[in-house]
Fold this protein.
Amino acid sequence: MKRPTLADVAAVAQVSPKTVSNVLRGRPLASKATQERVWQAVASVGYRVNRAGRALAGGGTGRIAVVVPNLHQPYYAENAERLILALADRGLTSTLRIAPDAASEREAVFGGTTADADGVIVLPHFINTEVLGGMAPDRPVVQFGSRPTGLLDTVVMGEREGFSAVTRHLLDTGRRRLALVWNATQSGRPEGRRFEGFEEALAEYGLEPDPALMAAGSDWDWRAPGFEAMTGLLASGARFDAVLCINDSVAVGALRALRVGGVRVPDDVALTGFDDTDEAEFTVPPLTTVSPEHEAMVDAAVRMMVDRLGGEAGPPRVRQTGAHLIPRASSGVPR
Amino acid sequence: MKRPTLADVAAVAQVSPKTVSNVLRGRPLASKATQERVWQAVASVGYRVNRAGRALAGGGTGRIAVVVPNLHQPYYAENAERLILALADRGLTSTLRIAPDAASEREAVFGGTTADADGVIVLPHFINTEVLGGMAPDRPVVQFGSRPTGLLDTVVMGEREGFSAVTRHLLDTGRRRLALVWNATQSGRPEGRRFEGFEEALAEYGLEPDPALMAAGSDWDWRAPGFEAMTGLLASGARFDAVLCINDSVAVGALRALRVGGVRVPDDVALTGFDDTDEAEFTVPPLTTVSPEHEAMVDAAVRMMVDRLGGEAGPPRVRQTGAHLIPRASSGVPR
DNA sequence: CTTTCTATTGACAACGCTGAAGTGCGTGCC
DNA sequence: GGCACGCACTTCAGCGTTGTCAATAGAAAG
């Protein structure tokens, strides 16, 4: 009736509970024969570990916290899903935490609200070197995306390569006046690896970014800010024949603004996003975007986590994945 | 250095650990004065309960599992977010589980994979009376959306009212040949409360559903099936002046198919969705949809959960919320 | 001035598991 | 033959919390 415990398994296998525990944890202490017997006993009584007991005794919780700022942005939802499923493949359960502001993000990474997890994978929105303030967490933390701080294991996408690829793509197809819809930054101007990729590609054509063609949405990467920024750019009277958005959601907002403004995509203006979220495939017209190689990123993040849980020491590592262009109709050649 | 325990609080407050526990759980056993003292001690040592200890001792985990089939569909991601945040408001932590198939959904509801939760809120994709097979779970389970089985507490949206409202809206604005893009059903024909709403509204105009104007996507409510179903309908040569989709994602897929087919929305054909997901606001043209009153649904679900956790007994309840039309350009009057 | 309550608090033994520290017993070595 | 050693396992105590039941004190009752 009651859920079976280690002791029940032990009784059946004719060994001590501790031995059962050792076998379950994969410790190479027991003989082959004993291991065999234990596993059979486990199966026969239908044993499943009691995580509370294990956690209390110091054996860890077997749980990884996945921390995102929200789930309504496809970028976060889709990556959270990929991470959770990948962790499950490795036998790790996960618990998702939504940290909508800087304080809760920090809390989630450094303990408080995720005390019941052995490790944390965070898709940060606020974290930066300043926020961390030199603190190092007391358990494995992997940062997924965003700028490395040097304090956490981090997986970064090929932001620079990816963005220079879209930029080149637009230049190659004859666009010359490239506008940017960015998210707000401290400095008030676009910055970061993606922007570097942009400059890099322009330079190859002997061009430079034009400040008059840059629009920043709010700090939050999302559709409405993209819409507003684009609307503002249109109202400014600036002339451009392509718009590069910092990500897909912003592009979806921008697309609508272009439509409202009577601008045809791609005939009058080409439009591109970044991230390869599902929504990009079904916009009208479908959105050209950059794939950050989701599989590779998730794989790298999970692998780093598993290694650290396995006791691997050493300074924070940074793994970089590639990025490739996904050309679609939104950046098609004008008729 | 170490995380403070009940004993530490007890020492400061000059009472036994058990009394501290009682105060923390809100038991009305201790005197006012003692309660006061305990709370101050808690604050002064910065105590936070150790959930593993509590769970082991039988005090519950204070955790609610939110179960969804996936996170890449906005409907699930957005509602999971709302639920998680609403639970947090009530002081309940949550753990999100992805159950992509019938077996894991069942497992999640009946224990196995969510043994570490005091209760479960499930946004089902597979659950039906048959799958449950008369089983009653041994802890509070609230079903969010989908068809009630009579076995679980359930929150349902105003599906019938909502769908009859969109239907009437289309009829009121002069549309007469209404097509349906549905998800696959056992019977192969559209069914369910939404369909009833459709029939009901048609009947008011002396009309009947036309089988030639019905298209079913795959079982999965998602964009690609919507695209395929719509493409098929267009290829069939059927003539229609409006398309009602079972939900927003399907509508997004259908919109693209219409566009590819050279059909103008809303000039040639009006298009509608259901669910009021974020994506509906930013399609081109923006999508007319039905809001299931998210706040009310989430509120009802959380409230039922809290009541059950509080020990409320009785047979499964069903709470129904309303639904209202959100008219947008996709169902505008043709010029 | 006992006796019986009532209100408040405490002692104790779990809960299921794991780290640390053994216990035997057979081997290999000089 | 004596001794150290390694192997295969076990014993023990305790992780932080809670339910059960006992204990204490003071008040009310007789």
Summary: The first helix of chain B runs from residue 6 to 13. Residues 5-7, 17-18, 21-22, 25, 49-59 of chain B lie near DNA strand D (CB under 10 Å from a C1'). Chain B has three domains: 6-49, 63-157+293-321, 159-291. The mean pLDDT of chain B is 92.
